Amino acid sequence: MEHKFNTQINQSGRLMKEFVDTVISFYQNIKQQDVSRIMDAQTLSRLQQQEILAQGRPMEEVYHQLLEDVYPNASLMQHPRCFACIPSPVSLLS
Q1: Are 87 and 93 in contact (CB under 8 A)?
Q2: What are the Cα distances from residue 40, in Å, to 69, 73, 74, 85, 93?
Q3: For a tag site, which of 24, 40, 51, 88 has the least CB within 10 Å?
Q4: Coil, helix or strand for 76?
């Protein structure tokens, strides 16, 4: 049981570090990205057909699906050219 717990902790730590690197890269390159993107029909269909499982999926699988299917297709409300962007004291833009 302890081995499984340690494995989960190590996996969580690795994914958190990867996520932080991804977020930093995202903000460093945000001006080169489109403010809004339209999801392709194949990805939309795949996500719409996905069911909520009784048991959870592996964390790494969910994380990579977010990186590949969800985040790239989201509108960037924090983009400097987005009219919804109002910098506040807690914003990286302010």
Answers
A1: yes
A2: 10, 9, 12, 25, 30
A3: 51
A4: coil
Residues 6 or more apart from 94 whose CB is under 8 A from it?
87, 88
pTM of the model: 0.65
Q: What is residue 77's DSSP assignment?
A: T
Distance CA 85, CA 1 (A): 47
Amino acid making up residue 12: S
Tokens of 13: 């730590």
Tokens of 66: 């977010």
Query: 63 CB contacts (<8 Å, ≥6 apart)?
Result: 15, 18, 19
Cβ count near 33 (within 10 Å): 13
pLDDT in tens, 38-66: 889 999 999 999 999 999 999 899 999 99
